[in-house]
Amino acid sequence: MRFANVDGTRSEAQPKLRGICRGCGEEVIAKCGKHVVWHWAHRSLANCDSWWEAETKWHRAWKNQFPSDWQETILHDTTKGEKHIADVKTAHGVVVEFQRSSIDPAEVKLREQFYQRMVWVIDGSKNELDQANFAMSISRVNEHAMAGLRWYGRSKLFARWHTTTPVFIDFGEEYGFWRVCRFDPETKKGVVMFVDRALFVEALTTGQSDFSSGGGPASK
Questions:
Q1: Distance (Å) of CA 97 to CA 57, 190, 217
Q2: Residues 37, 57: contact at Cβ < 8 Å?
Q3: Cβ contacts of residue 20 below 8 Å, gap of 6+?
Q4: E-assigned strand segments in 100-171
Q5: Residue 32, domain extent
Q6: Are residue 39 and residue 80 in the same domain, yes or no?
Q7: Is 160 buried (19+), middle (13-18) or exposed (0-12) by CB count in 10 A?
Q8: What dihedral do alpha carbons 7, 11, 13, 16 form, nearest 10°?
Q9: 146: pLDDT confidence band, cut at 50, 70 and 90?
Q10: pLDDT tens for residues 166-218?
Q11: CA angle at residue 101 from 195 to 13, to 5 degrees?
Q12: pTM (2 decimals)?
């Protein structure tokens, strides 16, 4: 995590600091090595957010596209006594979750039910084979920035994110940032749209769009 409370102040990790997790109230330690993103780490995650994912440079780079006070927002469901830490919640009420690791489809649904208005941004660049397969799987992009997709890879990348919530996959600078408009897990065919990263961030930041009108890959 990027922020913890140090002497009651929301603070970033610095060498030798100790803080308090804003989510669970447990002690956290600053991890500030040369080869890792500086972050706060729990001694144990047993009492904290089970949805939390270790932060990488990819996570941090995306989160830094948004104001720091929108990052790591703690949200509560008082009826269930449940709370979770959203990667980003905009001033317009949209949660943006940046996901690098694989998660179970049941958890995907739970997060969507909890956050309601949200979009997923998935790291498609962590696996070079996924990047190469994606490049081979799409047709030529048309004048509307759309392309057909026929997924040849064995990876479950697209099938895993077959949901009605908006899904964007970041394949890195070389392969681009794409919205998954439609995808059929049976035929492995779908439609994707090339999206400018800066315009994506601007739309969320200004409240121009929450991308819900088109739904996600499983929308009809």
A1: 15, 23, 16
A2: yes
A3: 4, 5, 6, 26, 27, 28
A4: 118-123, 146-150, 167-170
A5: 1-48
A6: no
A7: middle
A8: -20
A9: very high
A10: 999 999 999 999 999 999 999 999 999 999 999 999 999 999 999 999 999 99
A11: 95
A12: 0.87
Rounded to whole angstroms, the Cα distance separating 1 from 54 reads: 7
Asked if residues 173 and 205 have their Cβ atoms less than 8 Å apart, the reply is no
Whether 41 and 57 map to the same domain: the answer is no
Residues 6+ apart with CB under 8 A from 133: 151, 152, 153, 155
Length of the chain: 220
Q: Are residues 30 and 137 in the same domain?
A: no
Q: Cβ(55)–Cβ(42) under 8 Å? A: no
Q: How many domains does the chain have?
A: 2
Non-local (6+) Cβ contacts of 151 within 8 A are 133, 137, 157, 158, 183, 188, 189, 190
11/60 same-domain check = no
92-134 pLDDT, tens digit each: 999 999 999 889 899 999 999 999 999 999 999 998 999 999 9
User: Which pair of tokens denotes residue 198?
Assistant: 């800066």
Neighbours of 162 (CB within 10 A): 19
CB-based contact 170:124 (threshold 8 Å): yes
CA–CA dist 172, 132 (Å, integer): 11
Query: What is the mean predicted confidence (pLDDT) over 11-22?
Result: 86
- Give pLDDT tens digits for 37-75: 888 888 776 667 778 777 889 999 999 999 999 999 999
